[in-house]
Structures are given as structure tokens and as C-alpha cells.
Write a structure and sequence with these properties.
mainly alpha; flat; 99 residues; 2 domains; single chain
């Protein structure tokens, strides 16, 4: 694991988002490196509590199509969906715990 992991400099946020979208394994490599050298949880990614999710190709294509219909980027669309699902699940768990 001695390869250099360098995030390029970006002119715009759109350019950066495109790069991360095209390099999904990069974040995983960064996390694996941090875990191996004992620095996991010490960097800016940990402060942001970022998470990388692997999705199958069919779900990505569907998310692209639906996000485009809403006029937003795929990542923002998926964040909205995940947040709404988590809130529903938390409410469901809270309701069943109170019963």
C-alpha cells in the first residue's frame, strides 16, 4: 500500500464532483490506508462523517434518470432519499418502542 493518494486540485465544485463520481474506489483506498496506518478517524473525512456506498449499475442508472427529472445531481437526489428513509425508519422504531 505504498501508492501515493493525491486528490487533484479542482477549478469548480462541479469538476470535483465529477472527479469523485468517476473515481469511486479512491475514497475507499484513502480509508483503507488510514486504517492500516492508524490514522482513521483523524482527518477531515472523519470530521464530516462521510460514507461511501457501492450501488449496482441498475440503481445508479435509475437514480440518474430520476435525479435528472427533478433537475438535481444524482448525489443530492440519493442524499434526499436516504435521509427520508432514515427519518421514516427512526419514526417507525420509535413508535414500536413506545408501544
Amino acid at each position: 500500500m505504498n501508492e501515493e493518494l493525491v486528490v487533484p486540485k479542482f477549478a469548480t465544485e462541479r469538476e470535483e464532483a465529477k472527479w469523485w463520481d468517476e473515481n469511486p474506489d479512491f475514497a475507499l483506498k484513502v480509508l483503507e490506508r488510514a486504517e492500516a496506518d492508524g490514522t482513521l478517524g483523524n482527518g477531515s473525512m472523519a470530521r464530516r462523517k462521510a460514507a461511501a456506498l457501492r450501488l449496482n449499475a441498475a440503481d445508479i442508472l435509475l437514480a440518474d434518470r430520476l435525479a435528472k427529472r427533478k433537475g438535481i445531481e444524482r448525489e443530492a437526489y440519493l442524499q434526499e432519499l436516504l435521509h427520508a428513509a432514515l427519518v421514516r425508519e427512526a419514526e417507525s422504531v420509535d413508535a414500536s418502542s413506545a408501544a
